[in-house]
Each structure stands twice: as structure tokens, then as C-alpha cells.
Amino acid sequence: MQYAKVCISAGSSGISGRKTMQIRENLEKREAEYLSPYACHSVDSRGRDRAEVECDIRPVFQRDRDRILHSKSFRRLKDKTQVFLTPEGDHYRTRLTHTLEVSQNARTIAKALRLNEELVEAIALGHDLGHTPFGHAGERALNNVCPLGFAHNEQSVRTVELLEKDGQGLNLTVEVRDGILNHQTRGNPSTLEGRVVRFSDKIAYIHHDMDDAIRGGILKETDVPGEIGDVIGYNSTEWIDHFIHDIVSNSYDKNCIVMSEPVAGAMAKLRQFMFERVYTNPKAKSEEGKAIMLVETLYGYFCKHTEKLPDEMQMLLSRGEPLERVVCDHISAMTDRYAIAKFEEIYVPASWHG
């Protein structure tokens, strides 16, 4: 078997030679031929804040996806809480596994609707990069103590625009950053791909949080009210199937991403059920008060002892970034394990460790 020989010139942004530039161009032409007229095509991107030479072989959204996947903030997601703090067992979701499930849901929907899968994947992989340790407990803690406020979707955008790559950011396209910023329920993404991710985020956390709650002994499938189960099923596998099929069937060849009224109503009731039975359940949240105290204490410490901030945070301060925001940058980037270790290092005598 013969293999094509590919040469890469030193210092270039990709494969050398004019002929190879057609790889990206051909991929962009394929998008024009195949994607829905309502999809966001790579050639129509509104671009980046800083102009760059185009990659020889990758359209812009594929390039963004790759940058996110290789970022430090993406790798840290594996040690950040999703819902259950310090769960006993290896099969509970983390922020990373949640992100991967959002990505898979979104790609399934995008493929069926002939939308731009690479844009969808980039948004999905980046949507929680700015999330705090200890899940939404950590987010609430920083929002409580920081006078500038704190929201993880805004922090995710700040992460890709400023914090990654030693203050240079990832220089992602406008469309990817817009989708990351607007992935929450109240958001209004400018692309259909962003709206797919917004739905996929809900689908993922409803699906896996129910699965984790059953594993944790908090819920049984028989606890699901009939008014919900009769519409979308009585277990998380049936729910994800109903949600995805309903979105695809109601959004196909349309300039919108929507659910039918019965399924959307069932989803809203299911989210309320999960908030009442899981997200505020004492068993699931038994350690949450400790996590909030830990995050708030670290915030106060670093605001007072700015010399203890790492070099990359000192650099941000030297640029004129507000101290309160920089301290949030530092703490929100921590994994659960690192935040605990840092708290112990500061406040627990060494002889007490172990």
C-alpha cells in the first residue's frame, strides 16, 4: 500500500504549498453543498479579534475546536464537580464527562439537521471552561463575595479570550464565543448551532443527574411523576431519546431550534422535579456548605495577600485588571482537589495533615 507523502515547512501554519490550501477550501465548498441554508458556514464566520493566517487544512471552527481540546482549562474539567461533591464511586459524572455528553448530544442533533458539527462541538467543549471547583456551589460562593459578580458562562468566555496561553487567549471566532456565553437557558445564541448546544446542555444534565441520583440512592425511576413519564418516559435513557428526536423533528429545515409544546412542558416539569428532589437534596448537597466556606475563605485570603497570587495572575494585575476579578480568575481555575490542598496549606497546621 502506498501512502501520500506530506511535507510541513518549518514555521508554517500548516502543510506547505499552494496545492494543499485547497484542502481547507474544498472542505468549505463541501459545507456549501451539504449544510442546511440555515447553518453557519465556516466561510461566513465573523472572524477573530486578532487576524490570523488561515490554516491550510482546517476550516475556522475545526481550528477552534482543536484549540479548546488542547487547552489547560479543558484538561482541568476532569477534576471539577458536576453535582455530587466527593462521591463514593468511579462512575459519577465530572465537569469533563458532562461536557463530552453535551458535545455528543449536540453533534447528533446537528448532524440530523445538517448544521455545522464543528461549530457545535467547539461551543459544547468550551461552554464550561470557566466553571468553578465544587460545581454551582463554588459559582454561588464567588458570586456572593465578589462585588463584580461571577457567572460561569461569562468566565468561560474570559478564559478563552484572556486567561489561556499566558494571557493571550485562544483567539476564537465570534460564533464560538457567542455560543459559549449564551449556553444557559436565559441565553440567546446568534447561531442555530449555539441554540443546539443550549438545548443539549439541559438534556445532558437532566439525563446524567438522574442517573447519578439513582446510583446515589436519592431517587428511583418509579419516583418520576406520571404527568412527566407519560410524555417522555420513566428513565433517563427514554428521556434523552425523546428530547433529541423531538428537537430534530420539530426543527428540520427550519430557521429555529425548538421542541414541541408537550415535550418542552415535560422537560420544564422534569427540571423542577430534579431541583426539588436532587439539586437541593441534603444527601447530594451534604458537603456543599463546607465547599462554599472554603471558596469564600480562599477569595478573602487572596484579596488580602495579593503577593501569594501566581505569576500569571500578577501579570493581569499589572495590566490593570481589577483585583477582585483576578482573584476570581485564580480560584475558578482551580480543581476541587487543588482548592482543598491550597486551603489546607494556608489554614491547616502541617502536623495535622494525613
How does this model look, in words?
- With 354 residues, the chain is an all-alpha fold.
- The protein has a single domain (18-352), classed as Orthogonal Bundle (Hypothetical protein af1432), CATH 1.10.3210.
- The model is unreliable at 1-12 (pLDDT under 50).
- It has helices spanning 18-34, 60-69, 72-76, 95-113, 117-126, 135-145, 152-167, 174-181, 192-215, 226-232, 236-251, 261-279, 288-304, 311-318, 323-332, 336-347.
Which key phrases capture this entry?
single chain, 354 residues, mainly alpha, flat, disordered N terminus
What is the compact description of this entry?
59% of the residues lie in helices and 0% in strands. With 354 residues, it is mainly alpha-helical.
CATH class: Mainly Alpha
Beta-strand percent range: under 5%
Average predicted confidence as pLDDT: 89
Assembly annotation: single chain
- Total beta-strand segments: 0
Shape: flat
Instruction: Compute the CA-based radius of gyration.
Output: 22 Å
The CATH fourth-level homologous superfamily? Hypothetical protein af1432
| Unreliable runs | 1-12
Q: What is the second-level CATH architecture?
A: Orthogonal Bundle
Q: Helicity range of the residues?
A: 55-70%
